[in-house]
Design a protein that fits this description.
Number of strands of chain A: 0
Largest sheet of chain A: none
Largest interface: A-B, 47 and 48 residues
Number of helices of chain A: 10
CATH architecture of one domain in chain A: Orthogonal Bundle
Helix content of chain A: 55-70%
Distance between the termini of chain A: 69 Å
Structural class of chain A: mainly alpha
CATH superfamily of one domain in chain A: Tetracycline Repressor, domain 2
Oligomer: homodimer
Strand content of chain A: under 5%
CATH topology of one domain in chain A: Tetracycline Repressor, domain 2
DNA sequence: GAGTAAACGAACTGATTAGTACGGTTATAT
DNA sequence: ATATAACCGTACTAATCAGTTCGTTTACTC
């Protein structure tokens, strides 16, 4: 078991970059660690070790623990809906679009990462209210706006009939996410999140939505 | 500034009970303090001081901090829906009943105590999953069951038409609570919870629900 | 290839807090 | 009344962790 540079798998003697690049590396590691353990559970020491960094470097780049956490949340919140489609396509029947939106949203919400993030933010808001506002505007609010715009558009073109698109959007999204989010947060028990159950749930939510807001023919689409 | 027993307003020289009675006093104080500050923010010292107790007494009665917290949550979860009406009345039109249920639920959910409790549980579940299960079964699950039973009953009597009452219940409750709960947890900003907005929201949710599940005539009730 | 600023690592400070110990006090049961 | 067990208050231990310091090493710049 010699230790020539080639077979030394333990310490790769990695070339450590400087400046902004190092900063981003550390932020990426911090995101992973914070998501895994939340704010209070995570220590600066752990982040440093996992990033192969020293605490001094952490503090030079981010000032303090709260700032690092804020930056992570900010970045992640922005990526969440940013990564998704920027605007809902108007192609396809409302039923299809609603179904896709609902199912994608549900799958996304019950993912461990989403639940962890939400959990971490909920816990930190009393200490750092700004964090919650950033998350809400970057995440849920953005989605609601996109969806409401789609509803307004579909209403103008006669496919749907939503007098108050913002409200209709909240009702639809709520009917889909609430129960799963509560379950995921307080009683995470795998088999509640089966793909089949989610599809049944979303289908029924779409039916309910269209029964009220489907403009005439579209309701039976 | 003499200190005769009569004018000593600071320390009332209160008669401190022993045994079970003292235990309950302390639990009541702990509930208040935990609700105010969550688990990690709250120290045993603070609870002891606020209860006029010594830490030794806390530990004798509850063993450790986690046990005390668990007991508080257990008690509160049980009281939440237990205090509410045991069974939904079948008197009145579905529209009235849905409206009342929705509005009461919403008012209850956005109350500071409810949000604090939920926040505390969400934060603690990773450390103590049992806590979340207790809360869910005692709180949300119980409400969903009650409501689903009502829907089934109303369906049998022809007032409504819910093929799968459990699912319909989840959709209705979800359409009402989701958005307000998210807002309350991550971006608490007072004016979002005005009585008027909540009424408009609930009315629209009821309309949507009845459009789908209102059996014929009831839909226009 | 030399100088410099960034990074490492290890040790340290200071503050907090769960949990324990103990001597003095008081409610309560007999 | 008196015994005793519960209680109070204070002080302690041990552990954790944010944030700092410093001597050494190393990646980048010119």
């Amino acid at each position: 078991m010699s230790m020539t540079p080639q077979n030394c798998a333990e310490k790769a003697a990695r070339r450590v970059p400087r400046g902004e690049k190092r900063r981003e590396e550390i932020a990426a590691v911090a995101e992973r660690v914070f998501l895994r353990g939340g704010f209070t559970e995570t220590t600066m020491q752990i982040i440093a070790e996992e990033a192969g960094a020293s605490k001094e470097t952490l503090y030079r780049h981010f000032g303090n623990k709260g700032e690092l956490f804020s930056e992570v949340i900010r970045g992640r919140s922005a990526r969440i809906t940013g990564g998704k489609e920027g605007e809902l396509s108007v192609e396809g029947s409302p039923r299809e679009i609603l179904r896709d939106l609902g199912l994608n949203l549900l799958r996304f919400l019950v993912s461990p990462d989403s639940l962890s993030l939400y959990r971490a933010i909920v816990a930190e808001v009393p200490r750092e209210p700004e964090l919650g506002r950033i998350f809400y505007t970057q995440g849920p609010a953005r989605l609601l706006n996109q969806f409401a715009r789609y509803l307004a558009c579909a209403t103008r073109s006669g496919k749907l009939c939503c007098p108050v698109p913002e409200l209709a959007a909240k009702l639809f999204i709520g009917s889909i996410v609430a129960n799963y989010q509560i379950l995921g947060l307080v009683a995470p028990h795998e088999d509640a999140f089966s793909e089949e159950k989610m599809q049944v749930h979303v289908n029924e939510a779409v039916d309910m939505f269209l029964a009220r807001y489907g403009g005439g023919a579209a309701a039976r689409g």
